[in-house]
């Protein structure tokens, strides 16, 4: 099994992750897809005139229900859609991914994660708006949205019929792979790594852990998006509060070291030192892990937003801005600060074996355990919940892609496959799974961002029209008070 995944990793790396610097910087490569994501984020940020920093108040008003109308169509509320998307993004990418970013790229990777978070807000706004614009109400009562829809329909509208179909199909296959890899196998393997350190029984019986998490996941995903959103509406706030409370407690205990941590972050972000590859190495690690955490630009979370009750597609785009901000700018930054302050990221330290094995969740657990001796046990429970919530959301993403390719009547095959691999993930090498997950999920950005570039003018027009109506008071007058 391990050799199979190694061969896939090697193929994808050679095909899509080639070094755009062509070896001009010793010891550092700049993957093409990372540059692709950065260029997309920068372009859309300027195109939307920094919508990522000027729409917070209006986004909050939408979330609290101020702009409901009688013409809203969909299945779930804007808040439910946001929590469903956050349940997929707020998870082990924040816990395991951040630890790996700092341990590999140094403290400077934190700065670039924050930058990636802000750029990701523009990407998220654009892709979610397009998802709502081109969503389809299917005969079985479900709603099909996401990159598959706006790539096929949107590009066809622009005259690129064949290109749109090809990109949509490629994206759908990649999202199924991403759901199985990053949204399933990676989650289970990292959760198992952390929990087996606290519960010795599972270290000797990994398949039991796999059966437990597969059973719980299966009990939820059978109910579809309405049950998934109902669970995530309750689960996500609890998870975030528990995790952030512990982070704030630790940072408060070491408040005198926070300044030093930020100095390390800024120095590392622009360092020319060969250690960790310097500035370029920190930038690459920061962006890679931030994207894996927030999924901005990958085209995945627009699937969760597609069933939302709304009249204007751009309105849910505003709500989606909160995803990368909460996920990356807030939670990832706090995790990174704890890891830096506790010093567990040092490659020659006592936790070198965890770094070498890419057991990021266990590394973060060790960081929190240095301050709160009993917290690794609580964190293990949190990690399990994070993994579980991510799995139920990503199972839905993959299922929508499966339905797009093969039809609704075959969705049960996908669900059986997804749950079966949840069990297998407990006996597969963790390090290989990390690489496999990143490869598949980052590859989704290739067709998705190409579509965003082509369709971005439509989003800009929708945004401008919406803001005119907002400024004139028209949106306030049509809202249900």
Automatic annotation (TrEMBL):
Q: What topology does the record note for this protein and the membrane?
A: Multi-pass membrane protein
* Keyword Membrane belongs to the record: yes
Q: Which domain of life is it from?
A: Bacteria
Q: Keywords, A to Z? A: Cell membrane, Membrane, Symport, Transmembrane, Transmembrane helix, Transport
Q: Which GO terms describe its cellular component?
A: plasma membrane
Pfam families reported in the protein's UniProt record: Na_Ala_symp (PF01235)
Which regions span the lipid bilayer? 20-46, 79-104, 110-130, 166-187, 207-228, 235-255, 261-284, 325-345, 365-389, 401-424, 436-455
Instruction: List where in the cell it is found.
Output: Cell membrane
Q: What InterPro entries does the record point to?
A: Na/Ala_symport
Asked if Cell inner membrane is a keyword of the record, the answer is: no
One Gene Ontology molecular-function label: amino acid:sodium symporter activity
Q: Which family does it belong to?
A: Belongs to the alanine or glycine:cation symporter (AGCS) (TC 2.A.25) family.
- Give the protein name, as stated in the record: Alanine:cation symporter family protein
Taxonomic lineage of this organism?
A: Bacteria, Pseudomonadati, Campylobacterota, Epsilonproteobacteria, Campylobacterales
